[in-house]
Amino acid sequence: MERRRGRGLARHSTRASYSLMNARQLLELLAIATLLTACGGTHGESSDRIVVFNAGSLSIPIRAALDSFAAREHVTFAQENAGSLETARKLTELGQIPDVIALADYEVFPHYLMPEQVEWYLDFARNRMVLAYTPKSRFADEISTANWWQIVQREGVQVGRSDPNLDPNGYRTLLTMQLAEKHYGVAGLYDSLLAHAPSRNVRPKEVDLVGLVQAGEMDYIWSYESLATAAGLKFVELPTAIDLSSPADSASYATVSVRVRGKTPTDSVTFRGQPIVYALSIPKGAPHPDVAARFVAYMVKGNGARIMRATGLDMLDPPIVVGSGVPAVVATAAGGGPAGPNGAPR
Amino acid sequence: MSGAIAVAPPVRSHSAHRLASVLAALAASIFLLFLFAPILRLIISGGAGGVGRIFSDSELRGSLALTAATATTATMIGVVGGTPIAYLLARRDFRGRAVVAALIDLPLLIPHPVAGIALLLVLGRESAVGSALLQAGFRIAGSPAGIVCAMLFVSAPLYVSAAREAFARVDPRYEAVGRTLGDPAWRVFRRVTLPLSLRGLIAAGVVMWARAVSEFGAIVILTYNPKVVSVLSYDRFTSFGLREALPVAAALTILALIPLTALRALRPNGGAGAAL
After folding, report:
1. Is this complex's ipTM strictly greater than 0.85?
2. Judged by CB atoms within 8 Å, which residues 124-163 of A form the interface with B?
3. Radius of gyration (Cα) for chain B, nearest Å?
4. What is the fold of A47-126+281-343?
């Protein structure tokens, strides 16, 4: 079989002298040749392209930074948006190594990716939970920071949330609902809020909900401030005591917790409330570590940080490095921010 | 083939044909390998676990049942609604036939998440149809009905075009004979056209059903919960990784083989004839 294949291809190379080649054979050979060229072509092209895996809620800010960085450095890029846990799986399970990985929850790094895939991570942005909506949403003209929890319990109001088992925004929604019960002092509020965002209104990740609220299928969706801003949605600002935005409130956030699925179907993991912090890293074996390091430096300092801030992301200044082996250019840009205990950026 | 031998010198022609057969065999083997290697690998990696899960994992069982029920419902709707269109397209020369034929293929072109959003705009609760249905207590998004709609949209075009081909293969002279014997059009269809095209129609239904079972992109927009198997395998992969996702995918593949093989083995024409 191998020998025959070799002969066939050899004939192809001396095709001009082979007068009896008919149209069908020619087509077959062309198809094989095209396939081979296509494989070679893609391979060559990807050598100067930086690949970024990022959490869905970071897609717009990172895209903006990538666009300007790519123009400045004359590089091309490919961006893959997915849920934070799904993104981590791409490295751990599928062996796909990007140049930069940026996630919506810094805890995914120590839980899933260290020390095999990454040695360090950089906390670079904060976010807050909001209730996003459009002017067409039911009771859009009435809802406010004070009454949102009553509005979402009204008859006919559809509230969407993301899957707590797949998406940090999903379990953060549950944490915020629990904090709301404490904050407003209404017994049973958590159960009621949950019942008003039933499982049929759940989608895998918070970005999937944006289209649904825009299409009017949902009136309100649990989301991040950055995502609501980037998508042009209106949003209800929630009290700091419940929106998981404030490091100063860490202790009170930590009084609530949710259990979600763990690493196996029989396992479960408890997440306690804590401020929302985004983190990024350059994984071991990244194809273009130098460009990646320059891009990370660009994102956290100067122009890149300004561009990301303009899309609604609350950039940390300075960012905080956790772990060792940080590239010098990144460490310099980060300004040597101190690492908190146990890698927690407090 | 005999024409070519008559024209070209016999020896060179013979070697040319041999080369063509070798190349064709080579292309076919690579192609088959390309199609089957991933499935075989899937079944080897997850098959045993998958079969075990069918008994031990009630979420997977529920999901398989939901997938079978929704894909079958979608296929039945596709057959009832698509067969007359396929027949008209194959047999009647009417104004705008080309336009209808092209429109039928259109859903195949649309990326599936976009298809999901488009369906939502037409059937969602803000739409005329969706709000009327909701008034009647019938919810599309977030329910099995949404799954059926998504499956129907992406897979019905495959049924219509295959069914149209099946009707086109029936010699119109048999139908003409039926009519000259005084049978009304409906009875000619039932007694002549349908039996002669039945194998093709079943094959068309099988293709539609299989495509419906595999749909993910449009479904996840409309209905994430309850989860069909494609959504469940995505969910398991994201939550637990390959080790848990493979058995789910393998269970689906193995179970789907049963109805596919059974239907392919059906020979309503009594054996040989056009490939099913």
Report:
1. no
2. 136, 158, 163
3. 23
4. D-Maltodextrin-Binding Protein; domain 2 (3.40.190)
